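RECORD TYPE: inverse folding
INPUT: structure tokens
STRUCTURE:
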């Protein structure tokens, strides 16, 4: 029987299928035999293995259980499913679910892990209207937002440090009710015992050491991982020598930004319509 050749570099879905076939062949299992162990059909295994169907999270978790691969399949399934995201971000999001510490700096938009459902929906709807992504890709984005937020509700909870450029607070998304709910969510976030929220005000001017969004993770083994992006490109970095200067710049940003108390006070003023 001829097998369809798989190029793991062709796409995230092909990479997932290649890994699946490799481990299945190593164990000498047919697709039907694996299907019994994973609780699905042989046709489903075939469709995912050949890249004709994206792997669901549930299927990927079943594979991790069957093959004893920890969460390897689950992490790769995220990369394969979320096609509308910049390169590197799905993999970053997979690591974020297990990070001990999360540091983020965002410009112009509230970061996903802090977005209310109404804010996320309004932001995604406008992106779909502009034709930048398809409605299906918009659904992918909203699903990822929910998954990332749910992963934060774990024990022990990660430490989350968030610095938001003032533009995040002042850029209207949705209607007034949506923005008020979003600002209220930020105040609630700041009150949590495992979080720090700061605003980088416009008046910082050229004292701002970062100008583009940046995310830095400290993983459970204390290794570092960063993700930075521009308008059209995302960059995932694992080399400590490259990440440490970014971490230094982040600490400098925190030192220049408003304190959490002053940041919350600014948010409350905006909620009341004050300048």
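DESIGNED SEQUENCE:
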């Amino acid at each position: 029987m001829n097998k369809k050749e798989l190029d793991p570099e062709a796409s995230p879905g092909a990479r997932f299928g290649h890994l699946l076939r490799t481990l299945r062949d190593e164990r000498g299992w047919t697709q039907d035999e694996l299907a019994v162990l994973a609780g699905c059909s042989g046709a489903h295994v075939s469709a995912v293995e050949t890249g004709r169907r994206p792997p669901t999270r549930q299927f990927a978790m079943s594979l991790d259980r069957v093959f004893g691969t920890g969460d390897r399949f689950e992490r790769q399934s995220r990369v394969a499913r979320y096609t509308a995201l910049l390169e590197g971000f799905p993999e970053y999001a997979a690591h974020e679910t297990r990070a001990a510490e999360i540091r983020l700096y965002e410009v112009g938009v509230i970061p996903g892990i802090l977005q209310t459902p109404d804010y996320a929906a309004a932001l995604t709807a406008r992106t779909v209207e502009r034709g930048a992504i398809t409605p299906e890709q918009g659904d992918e984005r909203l699903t990822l937002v929910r998954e990332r937020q749910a992963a934060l509700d774990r024990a022990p909870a990660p430490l989350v440090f968030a610095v938001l450029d003032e533009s995040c607070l002042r850029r209207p998304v949705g209607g007034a009710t949506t923005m008020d709910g979003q600002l209220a969510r930020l105040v609630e976030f700041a009150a949590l015992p495992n979080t720090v929220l700061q605003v980088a005000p416009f008046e910082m001017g050229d004292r701002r050491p970062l100008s583009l969004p940046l995310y830095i993770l400290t993983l459970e083994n204390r290794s570092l991982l960063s993700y930075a992006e521009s308008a059209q490109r995302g960059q995932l970095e694992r080399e400590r020598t490259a990440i440490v200067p970014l971490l230094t710049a982040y600490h400098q940003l925190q030192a220049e930004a408003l304190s959490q108390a002053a940041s919350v006070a600014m948010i409350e003023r905006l909620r009341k319509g004050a300048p």
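NOTES: The mean pLDDT is 89.
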